[in-house]
What does this fold into?
Amino acid sequence: MVPFSECRNNLSAYISRVRETHHPILITQNGRAASYLVDVESLDALFDDLEPARDIEIARRKFAEGKGISSEEVFSRLHKKLLATKAAEEQPQ
It folds into this structure.
């Protein structure tokens, strides 16, 4: 935890520290949590981790609105495509 003025006055050092340790630094203003200083790699990894959860939530909402298809239908379609692919591969050329 670092006060804003301290972070501002030594920003380069704090950026280096965050990049090396991959540990975010909490920046305070007037004694209260205000922001985090985070390295790019850690933030990108966090976004990558959150994306599948976001996609699942979107799919759940669409399904609840009647805009999705059941897992049984998905597996049925995949099975049909697999059979068609196998049949095409077995055809003499």
